[in-house]
Amino acid sequence: MGHAAHDAHVGHEMHAAHGAQAGHAAHAAHDPNVFRRQFWIVLLLTLPVIAWSGEVQAWLGYRAPAFIGSEWIPPVLGTAVFLYGGRVFLLGARDELSQRRPGMMTLIGLAILVAFVASWAATLGLFSVDVWWELASLITVMSLGHWIEMRSIMQAQGALSALSDLLPDTAERLTDGGAERIPLGAVGIGDLLLIRPGARVPADGEVVAGDAELDESMITGESRPVAKEPGARVIAGTVALGGSLRIRVTAVGEQTALSGIMRLVAEAQASRSHAQLLADRAAALLFFVALGAGVVTLGVWVAIGKPEEALIRTATVLVIACPHALGLAIPLVIAISTTLGAQHGLLVRDRMALERARDVDLVIFDKTGTLTRGTPVIAGVSAAPGTEETALLALAASVEADSEHPLARAIARAADDRGIQVPMATGFQARAGVGARAMVDRRDVQVGGPRLLADAGLGVPESLRTATDGWARDGRTVLYIIADGRLLGALAAEDEIRGEAREAVDRLHGMGVRVAMLTGDARAVADSVARRIGIDEVAAEILPADKAAAVRQLQAGGARVAMVGDGVNDAPALAQAEVGIAIGAGTDVAVESAGIILVRDDPRDVAAAIELSRAAYRKMAQNLVWATAYNAVAIPIAAGVLAPMGVILPMSVGAVVMSASTIIVAVNAQLLRGLRL
After folding, report:
1. Active site includes 280?
2. Catalytic-labelled residue, pool 204, 366, 474, 570
3. Are 516 and 508 in contact (CB under 8 A)?
């Protein structure tokens, strides 16, 4: 998929998401530039209408220049404003009525139609009050409010267009004949690409040669450059900061992680939530409330003998009751929260999952691969008297140098991390269930577990027993090193705990959330991990098939549970929990069992997801309260209940108040961008 095609794909997804948000108004899918252009044109037409209005001249105490036909400036230009600026509102009203779903556009269309008829009635001498300036200023203010509203929504959608710009237009493909520059759309799976320093990665792939650091911040939210070496996966759209890479393409077009992320963001923004459904019902109800209030207003003012004021008051009620703020209250927060999450590596598949996350009071982590890295490390070294730890590790690493066993790799890494020179071994033998054996500097060296000691007829001396017994109690794997029939020392191996795990648990505790852990490991191993990182509850020796049942058991106590796992082995448990969170999904954004996907292998992002949920809900609640309270107060005033006290709300001021309410909601939602996850 070339760059142009990719942009078209993104545009389609943005339109789909945008259209789904348009439940609050038919105009929501419009380009903000349409309303920007409309606003400036109707403003230029409105200014003369206001200047030559007799009512405005009387208020301000001036006389506009009079010439032949000057008395027709308000009706002619006012009609132009109505036909040009009001057209989009009238068409929206027609669409709503054709769908039998009257809403905001119907209210606006009815209001400006009433004002237009009243204005011509005044011009033709049927009324004594000229209202052209109010009609023109009403449409002008409406256009301004809609422009700001649409721009706010498009800014919230900006992350999608920013993601679409991450891909380069071309790629450098390596062939037998050398390097060739090809369009992005010509890149295919299996191609070998050259990524030069400063260049963007054009497709997902695997590094086959070279070393470089990549900036993955726009994809995963990881602020630090990520080192890549042969065998590492790279993501389309990331940037090589230093060094060059040769990558083998594994995914292109819509199969890339970038397209998957964009698809999830668009789907999340389009999805509905409880708060959105509540706002939609309130907006629909408000239409009938406003219509009823308009009819009552018209009847009362006609009954007291003021037909001109009846039309003006009715139009003002309809204008001020337009539930723009109510309709914008939720969709804009949804758009901003999902894009903000995506920018920080939090992908929302299900809006309801993010909404429920605010109520979570218990987070359950799977241990292996979530709180731990799923690979063993050497956590302890104990040498017998007369043997140095460095020499012990050198012998063990030498024996295991040619083995692919995870424990062998852990020993080799431990020696490498300490900068130990490892001698060459010969005659390597792997002994299943026992260990490994090789000749090192003419010494017969063996590495293995307790069975190795039993086979060699050796016991653990007191000098090593304290360490080995402690390791065993903590559930660590104890490995012994024997040379020429003599026990030289022991090593402790364990599944490495992520450095971020303790901080993640502390953050959750700080938010009032308890933390539990599920694992298939032995109780001693589970308790050791839980003790070191502050886990509150532990369920050990749980088979994968029983994890969902374990989640149900915790839910039975009334806990609202979020389950955090790898999204594959933990699928039933993720589906059982109120909120399923797949951590460490990396570029695999198609984890069907999770409502929230964390791109990075960082458990701290679980707290960030809950924090985002709580912040988004606060903004939704604030906007809903403001929007409903505003209408409850504004409609009676617009109807004229304060008229006996001399307080009359002009139609144009009603339009300003209505637009101001919309702008307040939009600005409040935009404040969510300041959230630091």
Report:
1. no
2. 366
3. no
